[in-house]
Structures are given as structure tokens and as C-alpha cells.
């Protein structure tokens, strides 16, 4: 599969759905590379990889480390790295951290959470030659501030607020954006009105693409399952069954058998 350019991604608007999935290491990135248009090194790694309660204490160093690992495994997918909480508190800091991530991790773009409030930051990144994916709607980096994961876009005011954010980040220079945790009808209206691809997560069918966290999609994350997650594999059960079989064979001196020994 040929690696997509930004122009390729933009050209999929209203034409072909975009497939995005998260990855945090080379092993799974290599497995996903054949199928994913875009791989996101999300700060979701803080929960599914590190076992934290939210994404907030992920660091720039960690994002760089995991992006390097993903790059070693994925040779064809377009690679996007999250800018973690605290890395975008002002324009100067945003540019400094993004440049470091761009140079050290060699990602193809960075993803930044926020709408109108972050548009100046997005413009500064684009002015400095850094490609930006936006992220509006439900923003996990605000989970503590908002007291949980709140669905966005309810009512006319909710729709208008999201449209304002979407237009602001498009004007600032994003070439696509993630729309999370939004009513399906609202997501459809936003996707219809903006000129760039909208990649949904928990925002229904009528957008330009979808992204899921890989450990959710494969049924490996057992702490909770959001309503929008479809599990394509009962991964946790399968892994536990395999490890139990290994344990039983070791305990009962069945492994290694002769087939797994060096005898000559």
C-alpha cells in the first residue's frame, strides 16, 4: 500500500473513508500497517499502555519514544502524534514542542486538542512547516476540568459551538480533524460544512473516516468499554486462554516437548 500524502488524505473528503487506528509500538504498528491509512500515536497510551486513569500525565518524551517505535514498524501508514496535555499552554511552547516531536520522532503530523482557543497555535505550527490534525468535540485532556467524559453538540448552542471550533481550526490550517463524542446528526452537519476530512470517534457514520484505540477495538482493554467501541476480537479472553495453556503445560512438564528441544 502506497503511503498517503496530505493531498491524498484531503482528496478523500466525500469520496473514500479514511481508516485510522492507534498504535504505540513497532509490533502492532507492523500488523496494522497493511490496513491503516493513518496511525495515531495517541496520548491514550497513558491509559491502555501505562494503566493510568486518564491521558493527562503523558509527556512529550513519552510521545516521542512511542512514535519512534511505531515508525520502526509502520512503513506505509501516515503517522500522527498527539501533543500531550501541558505541551501547548502558549504559542511559543507549542511550536517548540512540536518542532522537537517533528525532528526527533519524524512523525508526519501532530494532533492538537482544541478549537477557537487553539487556532493561533495551529497557525503558528503551519507557518513553521508542521502539518496539523485538529481535535474537537469531547477532548480527553479536559476530562478532569469537566468532571468526566461529556457528549458534545447537544442543542442548537452545542452545534454552533462545534461549528465555530471547526471553522476556526480549518482556517488556521488543519488538513483534517478528529471529532470525538458528538451526536451523529451533529457530526454529519459539521462534516458537510467543512472543507477538510472529519475523522470520527464516537460521532457516528456520516463523517469522512473513523479512528479507534487498538486495544479497545481488539477487546484487550477490560477496564471499561465506551458505547461507540465495537470489539472486533475478544482479545483479552484469547490471550488469557493462551497464557493459561502455557502455564498448565509448564506446571505439568509438557512444555518443552522434544519438538522444542535441541538434541544434536
Automatic annotation (TrEMBL):
The active site is at 180 (proton acceptor). One of its GO terms (biological process) is methylation. Its EC number is 2.1.2.11. It is found in: Cytoplasm. One of its GO terms (cellular component) is cytoplasm. Keywords: Cytoplasm, Magnesium, Metal-binding, Methyltransferase, Pantothenate biosynthesis, Transferase. GO terms for molecular function: 3-methyl-2-oxobutanoate hydroxymethyltransferase activity; magnesium ion binding; methyltransferase activity. Pathway: Cofactor biosynthesis; (R)-pantothenate biosynthesis; (R)-pantoate from 3-methyl-2-oxobutanoate: step 1/2. Mg(2+) binds at residues 43, 82, 113. Its cofactor is Mg(2+). SUPFAM superfamilies: Phosphoenolpyruvate/pyruvate domain. It catalyses: (6R)-5,10-methylene-5,6,7,8-tetrahydrofolate + 3-methyl-2-oxobutanoate + H2O = 2-dehydropantoate + (6S)-5,6,7,8-tetrahydrofolate. Binds 1 Mg(2+) ion per subunit. Homodecamer; pentamer of dimers. Catalyzes the reversible reaction in which hydroxymethyl group from 5,10-methylenetetrahydrofolate is transferred onto alpha-ketoisovalerate to form ketopantoate. Belongs to the PanB family. This is 3-methyl-2-oxobutanoate hydroxymethyltransferase. It comes from Campylobacter sputorum subsp. sputorum.
Amino acid at each position: 500500500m502506497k503511503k498517503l500524502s496530505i493531498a491524498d488524505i484531503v482528496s478523500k473528503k466525500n469520496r473514500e473513508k479514511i481508516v485510522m487506528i492507534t498504535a504505540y509500538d513497532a509490533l502492532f504498528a507492523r500488523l496494522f500497517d497493511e490496513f491503516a491509512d493513518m496511525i495515531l500515536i495517541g496520548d491514550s497510551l497513558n491509559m491502555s499502555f501505562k494503566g493510568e486513569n486518564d491521558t493527562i500525565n503523558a509527556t512529550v518524551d513519552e510521545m516521542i519514544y512511542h512514535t519512534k517505535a511505531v515508525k520502526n514498524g509502520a512503513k506505509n501508514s501516515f503517522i500522527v502524534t498527539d501533543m500531550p496535555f501541558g505541551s501547548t499552554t502558549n504559542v511559543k511552547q507549542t511550536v517548540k514542542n512540536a518542532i522537537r516531536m517533528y525532528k526527533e520522532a519524524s512523525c508526519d503530523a501532530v494532533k492538537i486538542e482544541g478549537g477557537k482557543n487553539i487556532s493561533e497555535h495551529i497557525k503558528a505550527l503551519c507557518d513553521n512547516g508542521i502539518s496539523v490534525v485538529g481535535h474537537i468535540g469531547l477532548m480527553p485532556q479536559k476530562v478532569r476540568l469537566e468532571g468526566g467524559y461529556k457528549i458534545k453538540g447537544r442543542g442548537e448552542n452545542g452545534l454552533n459551538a462545534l461549528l465555530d471550533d471547526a471553522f476556526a481550526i480549518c482556517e488556521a490550517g488543519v488538513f483534517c480533524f478528529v471529532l470525538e463524542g458528538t451526536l451523529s446528526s451533529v457530526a454529519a452537519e459539521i462534516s458537510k460544512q467543512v472543507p477538510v476530512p472529519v475523522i470520527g470517534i464516537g460521532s457516528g457514520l456520516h463523517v469522512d473516516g473513523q479512528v479507534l484505540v487498538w486495544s479497545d477495538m481488539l477487546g484487550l482493554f477490560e477496564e471499561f468499554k465506551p458505547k461507540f467501541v465495537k470489539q472486533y476480537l475478544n482479545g483479552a479472553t484469547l490471550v488469557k486462554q493462551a497464557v493459561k495453556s502455557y502455564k498448565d503445560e509448564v506446571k505439568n512438564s509438557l512444555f518443552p516437548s522434544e519438538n522444542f528441544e535441541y538434541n544434536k
